[in-house]
Amino acid sequence: IPLFRKAGIEVSGIQDILNLNIYITNAVKTPKSEYTVSKDSIEESLPYLEKELELLPNLQVVMLMGDVAKKAFNMISKKATGKNAVPSISTYKLRNTEIFHKGIRIIPSYIMTGQNILIEKSKFEMASEDIALMYRLINEA
Questions:
Q1: Do 110 and 123 contact (CB within 8 A), yes or no?
Q2: What residue ranges define each of the domains in the chain, with the CATH number in brackets?
Q3: How far apart are the C-alpha atoms of 131 and 126, rounded to whole Å?
Q4: Of 47, 58, 74, 89, which is least surrounded by CB within 10 A?
């Protein structure tokens, strides 16, 4: 909610976000048992994530918040097209790049959960800017 508000989008809960035609999901569908998310864990969740994406026929923008989301989406892309949709470089280097996969705009961004929102101020700023861009793109279409 704070990221959306920082982006200039007044919301008070998830229902407000859904009412804006924004769907939020996680790339990995099982709780992580270690500090990092393993490739196996991502691969196990891919069929569910792919099914979710298929349920969104009017999908215009996919915002990938964090490296796990980027990896998962690239696995889906590689399976479908033989190549990664998102280049394997730092997110900050990709932020001003227009990336498309099957006509859908892809926006790599930063994950902002838990205490990270309070600690990483610059990433909070960039993630809220990315949300503002996503929102603009959805409303322009």
A1: yes
A2: 2-140 (3.40.470.10)
A3: 9
A4: 58
pTM: 0.89
Q: Tell me the residue type at 10.
A: E
Specify the residue for token string 């009017």.
Answer: 58
Token pair for 42: 């991502």
Instruction: Assess contact for 61 and 109: CB atoms under 8 A.
Output: no
Residue 137 CB neighbour total at 10 angstroms: 14
Pairing between β-strand 104-109 and β-strand 61-65 as defined by DSSP bridges? parallel
Pseudo-torsion of CA 48, 54, 58, 61, nearest 10°? 50
Supply the mean pLDDT for the chain.
91
Cα–chain center distance at 83 = 19
Q: Residue 61 corresponds to which amino acid? A: V
